[in-house]
Amino acid sequence: MNSKRTSTLALIVVAVALPFAGACAHRIVAPTPRAETPSREEKLVLAYNGEDGRTALELLKARARVRTSSSDLGELVEEINGVRSGEGYNLIYFVNGTMAKTGAGNYLTRTADRIEWRLIGPRRKP
User: Fold this and answer.
1) Are residues 49 and 95 in the same domain?
2) Has residue 60 been placed in a domain?
3) What mean pLDDT is predicted for residues 44-57?
4) How large is the average pLDDT for residues 82-96?
């Protein structure tokens, strides 16, 4: 009887513990490996505040020596104060820390805007 009682008790313990073990196993989530985004070399070229009603390009030209070329999308900034685009490096402007989504000649700034022109290099492999 003692052996039968021990077996019954063991069966009850397993029956009670099994659902908890399953619940715990489902809560463990292995992190998904994320591919690292290759870093880029980045250099601040020029920064200035916006002015209501003036474009980012207009303000840039008022503050720096600028060379542009024409494209179907408007004027493309190729050089600012001797810093040039080329060989995988591009002059890109940011508004309030975010890369702009329109050309500098089309973006009407506001007084609260902070415009930054950065030279962005090609992606580097990790």
Assistant:
1) yes
2) yes
3) 97
4) 96
Domain match, 57 and 88 both: yes
Given CA atoms 39, 101, 46, 110 in this order, what sign does their dihedral have?
Answer: negative
Predicted confidence band of residue 36 (pLDDT cuts 50, 70, 90): low
Query: Quick check: 116 pLDDT over 90?
Result: yes
Q: Is residue 87 part of a domain?
A: yes
**Pair type for strands 114-123 and 74-80:** unpaired
Determine the structural domain holding residue 5 and report its residue range. Answer: 1-30
Is the distance from CB of 50 to CB of 113 less than 8 angstroms?
Answer: yes
Please identify which residue in the block is written with the tokens 């489902």: 26
Look up residue 112 and give its amino acid.
A
Contact of 90 with 83, CB cutoff 8 Å:
no
User: Is 0.85 topped by the overall pTM?
Assistant: no
Q: Is residue 35 assigned to a domain? A: no
